[in-house]
Every structure is written in structure tokens, then in C-alpha cells.
Amino acid sequence: MHAPTALLALSLPLAILAHGPVFAQDHEVVHRRAAAPVASSSRVTVVRAAAAVTATTTSATKKAVSAVTALPTGAAASGIKSGVVSSFATSSLGTTFAAGATPTAIKGAPPLPDFNLINPKDYPALDLLPPIDSAQMKKWISEIDMTNVPKIAPTQPGGCANATNAAALRDAGADKNCWWTCGHCTRAEDITFCPAKGTWGLSYDDGPSPSTPKLLNFLDSQDLLATFFVVGSRAISRPQMLQTTYMQGHQISVHTWAHSMLTTLSNEGIIAELAWSKAIIKAVTGVTPNTMRPPYGDIDDRVRYISKQLGLTPIVWTSTAASTYDTQDWLIVGGQVPVATVLQNFETIINGSTKLDTGFIVLEHDLNEQCVDLSVNYVLPQALNFKPALTLEPIITCLGQDLSQAYIETHVASAADNTTAGSSGVKTISGGASSTGASAAGSTGSSKSAGVMVQAGWTAVLLGFAGAVLVR
Fold it and tell me: Are the beta carbons of 174 and 447 closer than 8 angstroms?
């Protein structure tokens, strides 16, 4: 997640504290597991799943959403308070899945692992930067071409307003290091919007949290799917929540192990944050995501290169010349932003979406009770009743690709057979770790033309004409 540039110096220290009430309660893993070795990460042969999912459902009744017409200060938000909450009640999962169940939503997916066999001792401490000198880290580093890592110095905490980042700020543009934090620079390989107009790539960051089941139950009741950017420390703390999220057909993506600002880390630190998150997600779900979202949107060409080497395509959220599509829901818990402001941000985003020539991706969270209550009581009902109608779906499918393309084990070499006919654009996701070692620094960046953002690097199909340029 990311604060608007002008507020970065003030908001980041408080934002990190804002994670405290949720993250601190997780320092004791909430389930006990037998001391068994972590499953092998060998690739799985892609075959069509033949078995049905075995599930226990406690709440499967579908219900329609009533139109929410309250203004940002209205009844829809009356019970949501800004500021730190002393405790969080864990919502109950409406559906759970047995070990060995086969995901029917993903072609070729392996059976669901038994999370009770995961040994916490095989993983780093929760919410801390993983050690970079472990045997596992040495193995991961040896598998990466480090010779072509862009020679970009780590930034210092505080972002654009920190005087010690003057050189990084000077080189933040597309012609240099393309540091998203200061200027929202993106490269051709970054995913920042959905190609088709009126399409919302629905996503949530920082879970699973005690409130994630409430969000999952609501999404299930409305037949909605989303992309979840998972923090590794949360995945090992709440594996059953992650399994349910995955088995219900939501896209799972990497959001680091401890939610660190990646540009502030060493090369090895970046590898540790991403690789350990990949590892625990695979141990819990049986598959490895091939996408990532940098916490706070903090990415530059050095982070991009290492992500690519780890087989991860970056996903940020939509930014235009006028605004960034960040609801700021994550600032409620720290008391930095009132609920009314977040709701107004959403109103601005959803109303502004009609002016885009493409779809969009919004930054939201399942981080805590306030974020989830806002989403299920206001944001999603408003979105479902918005006119003209919006299509809400996971980011992978908004790109015109099958859900199987979101994971290394089920990704196929060519995305041609997984492209949605008639979609307005296709973004090919990497199937695994790069073997080329090519530097991201040579990629084409975003440019502005007549006040409109033009993102290069997309293969677009508009009204049947191939090769059109997508403009947003």
C-alpha cells in the first residue's frame, strides 16, 4: 500500500504503527503442527483436475445486495470508527476444505496440502525481515543471476520527503530508476490497470486477518472473486483462511513476508521478503503465485529485476495524472484518516472510472475490521449497484487470462488458449523464474501525452483491431 506522495513522510511511520494492533496479535501461531519437512517445490505436471472439491459449508445461502444510497457521512459507515481498536474478533469461515481436496477452479492444480504438517520452525520469525544468511537463502540466491541487478542504492525510510533520498528522488523517473513511490513511474511489465473499460480488478492487501472470513463470506454470497495479496507472516498464522480463499477461486499473490518497503532493503533482503512469502503460500495451497504487489507500492528497477528473477510480475494500482486509486482505508486504524474521507475517496474513484478508457485496479485491504466493514457495508454494495454497471473480478481474469495462469505450477507456456475472446487487452504473466537475466532498467516507462497517461508494452485488441494502443 502507499500514501499519496505529499503525505509520505508523515504517514509512513504512522502507517507502520497502524499495522501493530493486527500484526502484534499474530506473534503466536494460532495452530499447532507436526514437525514435518516442508513439501518439495518441484513443478507439477499440468493436467485437468478430475476430482470434485470436498468442502464443509456452514453458510451457502446467496442473497441480493440492497442498494446503498447513503452519502459518505450516512448510516452505512455509522458503526465504523477511526483509530486503534484494542481487540479484534475473528470471524468464522463459511466454508472450509479438507486436505487432499482438488481445486476445481484451477486447471491442473495439485491437491490441497495438509497445513498441519507445516513446521513453523522451518520459517522465519513473524513480521521481521528474514535472515539473509540461512542455508535456504543461500540456495535461493545461487539460483538468481545477480550479475545484472541494476546498481541502485537502497532508499531510506521516509520516501520522497526524506532529504537523504535526494539522489533517489532525482533519479526516480522513467529515464533512470523508475521509483514508483516518487512520481508513480511504471514499466511495461508492471500491471496497473485492467484493459477493458468498466472492469474493476478487485484486490485486497495484508491478510489473512481475523476479519478476512467476513469479507470472504460476503464475496461468496455475491458470487464475486478477487485477488488477495498475502503477507507471508499472516499465511503461516492463518493457513485455513488462506486455503479457503484459494479454494473458493480467488487469486493469491505475494505481498512479502513482513510487509517491508522493498527499495529500502539490500538485494538479499528483497529476495528474502519475496521468496519466503512464495514458499509459505505454496506450502499452504500447493501452488506458487507468479505475481507480487510491493508494500506501499514501493518499487524501482532493482526490485523489478529481482522480482522477475523470482518469477514474479509486479502489480500496483491505477494512477492517472489526476489521482491515484488508493482508498486510504489502511489509514483508518491509525486515526490518520477519518472514515468519511475514505468513503469520499471511494466516491471519487468510482465516479472517475467512467472517464477512463480502460478498467482500473483499486488499493483496498482486509487488514482489519474497519477496512472489511467498509468494503462489505459500503464499497462493494455501491459498486454492485453503480451505473453504468461494473465488472468486478480478480486481476488475472481482468487481464483476459484463466485463473490457472496465476500460478507457476499451472501456468502454461503460451497464454493464447487462456485469452478471453473480445477482451480489450492481454497482459502475459511470467510462468516462472527468469532465465535471461535481462535488466528491467531497459524497459519503456510510462509517458504523458496531452495530460493522459499512456502505458506501453501491452498487446491490445480494440473492437477486433490488433495492435491498438491502450490509453488511460
Answer: yes
Measuring CA to CA, which residue among 144, 158, 143, 131 is closest to residue 16? 158
User: What's the Cα-to-Cα distance from 87 to each of 128, 369, 458, rounded to whole Å?
Assistant: 22, 10, 45
Query: What span, in angstroms and rounded, lies between the C-alpha atoms of 197 and 190?
Result: 19
Locate cell 537475466: which residue?
A: 437
Contact assessment for residue 293 and residue 176, using Cβ atoms and an 8 Å cutoff = no
Banded model confidence at residue 432, pLDDT cuts 50, 70, 90: low
pTM: 0.78
Sign of CA dihedral 204, 209, 213, 214: negative
Catalytic residue annotation: 205, 365
At residue 7, does pLDDT exceed 50?
no
102-113 burial string, b = 16+ CB within 10 Å, else e? bbebbbbbbbbb
Is residue 184 within 8 A of residue 320, CB to CB? The reply is no
Residue 249 near residue 406, CB atoms below 8 Å: no
| pLDDT tens-place string over residues 85-134 | 656 678 899 999 999 999 998 989 999 999 999 999 999 999 999 999 99
Task: Name residues whose C-beta falls within 8 Å of residue 125's C-beta, 6 or more positions apart in sequence.
Answer: none
pLDDT at position 311 is 97
Mean pLDDT of 262-274: 98
Dump the DSSP string for 160-180: GG-GGGHHHHHT-STTTT--T
Question: Within a 13 Å sphere around the CA of 258, how many CA atoms are in the beta-carbon half?
Answer: 19
